[in-house]
Amino acid sequence: MTKANESFEFPPTFRWGTATSAHQVEGQHTNNDWWAIEQVGGYVYEDQRAGDACDWWRNAESDFDRMAAMHLNTHRLSIEWSRIQPQPDKWSEAALLRYREMLEMLRDRGIEPMVTLHHFTNPLWMAVLGGWENENSPRWFETYVRKAISTLGDLVNLWCTINEPMVLLGQGYLLGNWPPNQRSITSAYQAGLNMAKAHAAAYHAIHEINPNAQVGLAKHMVVWSPQRVWIPTDHLVARLVNRITNHVILEALTKGQVRIFGRRSVKLENATNTLDWLGINYYQRYRVGMK
Questions:
Q1: Which of 102, 38, 95, 36 lies closest to 65, judged by CA?
Q2: Are 146 and 205 in contact, with CB atoms under 8 Å apart?
Q3: Full-model pTM
Q4: DSSP one-letter code for 140
Q5: What Å distances lie between residue 206 and 142, 144, 158, 269, CA to CA?
Q6: Among 241, 87, 84, 264, which residue's Cα sits nearest to residue 174?
Q7: Which one-letter DSSP state was computed for residue 173?
Q8: Please, what sign has the CA dihedral across residues 52, 176, 244, 262?
């Protein structure tokens, strides 16, 4: 039994930190699919637009100072693919230099950076070519990752390949709420396979360049409960949705297989054991069932 006067402390190596995503803070991402859809309207709350956002691209230092004042020791930030690779055959060295400055400023303040390579946004050129449904998307992503790692890798040991892939698949390919605004099980499945392949390709590329790096992804985990506990079919629906949203991508990146129903599966051998760590994001619980 724990005594009332006992105290507990976090270990010295525990990381206290904050997190941002590039599109939400940097501003003026005029070359990605989210910016494009914001101009159309009808998809973002009150048709708001990112605009200058928090103007991080010019003034991230002020927030870094706030982090240091709060005695934080880590920060997770994302880098914007469309800034770094504005066209398939074009790289922005100026953008990479700015990201180096940000990472150096974090380290100068005793804050270890974790870098997310993809946080929901795609370059417009990729979107025009079919986005994650295109069979070449894993290769495109690997090319971008290799460029980023070769330029920034000496400043970063913690890498997050893709933020919440199942959220992107659900919102973008099943519900049609996000780019590319589709409602297709077939499209969602193809995009999901390619995202798993892209993560695996990035994982191996990062370790090839920096063997000591720690590579993983952020996974949104949802608790699914039956709407009516006394109805068996509601339990079946809850188990099915739980499997699809919570387990399929993790099995792909640990066991190297994609299996949704029964014993049939697609082998992704290059994806086996490609998680050095797993970030768990938990926001809510849903009740589901048959109508």
A1: 102
A2: yes
A3: 0.94
A4: H
A5: 9, 11, 10, 18
A6: 241
A7: I
A8: negative
Contact assessment for residue 286 and residue 227, using Cβ atoms and an 8 Å cutoff: no
- Tell me the pLDDT tens digit for each residue of 70-127: 999 999 999 999 999 999 999 999 999 999 999 999 999 999 999 999 999 999 999 9
Encode burial over 200-239: b for 16+ CB neighbours within 10 A, e otherwise.
bbbbbbbbeebeebbbbbbbbbbebebbeeeeeebbebbe
Q: At what angle do helices 61-69 and 93-108 cross, to 10 degrees?
A: 20
Dig out the tokens for 19 from the structure.
């997190």
DSSP 52-99: TTT-HHHHTHHHHHHHHHTT--EEEEE--HHHH-SBTTB--HHHHHHH
The 10 Å Cβ neighbour count of residue 26 is 25
pLDDT in tens, 241-285: 898 899 999 999 999 998 877 666 789 989 999 999 999 999 989
Indicate the residue type of 83.
R
- What is the identity of the amino acid at 285? R
Give the C-alpha separation, 121 to 23, whole Å: 8
Q: How many CA atoms lie within 13 A of 242 on its CB side?
A: 15
Bond into 123 cis (ω within 30): no
| Length in residues, the chain | 291
**Residue 264 CB partners (closer than 8 Å, separation 6+):** none
Bridge-based pairing state of the strands 266-267 and 257-258: antiparallel
What six digits make up the tokens of 150? Answer: 């070769």
Residue type at position 170: G
